[in-house]
Amino acid sequence: MTDKKNTVTVTDNASGKSYEFPVLGGSIGPKVVDIRSFYADTGMFTYDPGFTSTASCESGLTYIDGFEGVLAHRGYQIGELAEKSNYLEVCYLLLYGELPNKAAMDAFSDSITHHTMVHEQLQYFYRGFRRDAHPMSIMVGVVGALSAFYHDSTDIHDPKQREIAAHRLIAKVPTLAALTYKYSIGQPFVYPRNDLTYAENFLYMTFAVPSEPYEINPVIADAMDKIFILHADHEQNASTSTVRLAGSSQANPFACIASGIASLWGPAHGGANEAVLKMLDQIGSVENVPKFIEKAKDKDDPFRLMGFGHRVYKNYDPRAEVMRKSCHDVLKELDIKDPKLALAMELERIALEDEYFIERKLFPNVDFYSGIILKAIGFPTSMFTVLFALARTVGWISQWKEMIEEPKQKIGRPRQLYTGPELRDYVSMDKR
Ligand code: SDX
Predict the structure, then answer these.
(1) By alpha-carbon position, which residue is closest to atom 42 of ligand 1?
(2) Domains of the chain
């Protein structure tokens, strides 16, 4: 007998019939109403396009409180992780659930380091693309192509193969991202180095050239590592939900991550950091800010303030706070007086004083500052979302692993509210 206190009752006023559904609680955050039997009980579907009120799964990886501006991975808050941890340790935490001791961290780091190289044949995939192809179009292709090379880690029912696939993806996506950048600028590919940290190695593969030594700037490497930490995972966002849905059909992990990259590309999601820079170019100067703020408020105008607003954060995005500080550190280290940052600061100031944004709780999100830092480090805007995908790979594969290890894992198959034509007979051509 279900405990009455832990149920909700739904009454269909048309028929007067009532239905009871259990309420399930997690460790922190909102409870859920278990409506898995709703269709069988009532003959109706629930309706929630955009999933504004729907939990799609149970997860222990990341907790977000949008009103308090809390983001925590396995219980550790993002501000502490950004300050005291490093990206590879956060990868371990997301994958295995606990902070590693030294032996576990050394073993994990060694495994990732020794998976950074990609099969030599993979470099030939790049030649099929135009040099000016958008880097995200290349990444969707080459990450999916990994499944053609690593057949010994595509059996999703084998825990060992799942783990190797996860390590391979965390290790190889930065290499593929760097190859994508090199290909786009016509420079030779640079192989990974095992003596560098994860972020240092990525900067090296991206910016080093064979004709001279490349010196790692520790401030930039630290900022890169922080950016990776801040983008590592974010609950059931659009691209993670895409990876879970692809994974629910038992597709191999490389194909699932490629589907996440495709979803992240959209300017409403991971493509926002690139869109922020384009927006700042479009605004042009501080004098134009008020005009564009008005455009953002005009329902008939498609212009939106990119880098503002969030489906979940209705107070502030804790990642934006860390990112803002990192942004100032990088610009100071590189002695860059980026007029775009001055424009961004003025845009932020005015927007946060404007009733429209205050009322709708539209605050700067993680993408607002990341674009400015990445531009300062030397990445072209077209590479911004590639870096987001690089960092989010660990979140995607950790969520995928959690789902595959769900004992009663089922294929995702939403229903619909059908509003098309009613059933009708075929009409032959001569009668149309
Ligand atoms: C990411 O989900 C995640 O966790 C994503 C992410 C992650 O780590 O995975 O955090 C990464 O995607 C961050 C978000 C990056 N996207 C942008 O910066 C693009 C600009 N932002 C918006 O497109 C929008 O805010 C969303 C998509 C982020 C959120 O959209 P919602 O929750 O569906 O909100 P909405 O579109 O219903 O907007 C609510 C109101 C509307 O006005 P009203 O109809 O109530 O009058 O706010 C307005 C919107 O018009 N609004 C904006 C706005 N965002 C929302 N108006 C102007 N500028 C904006 N940016």
Answers:
(1) 360
(2) 4-65 (2.20.28.60), 79-416 (1.10.580.10)
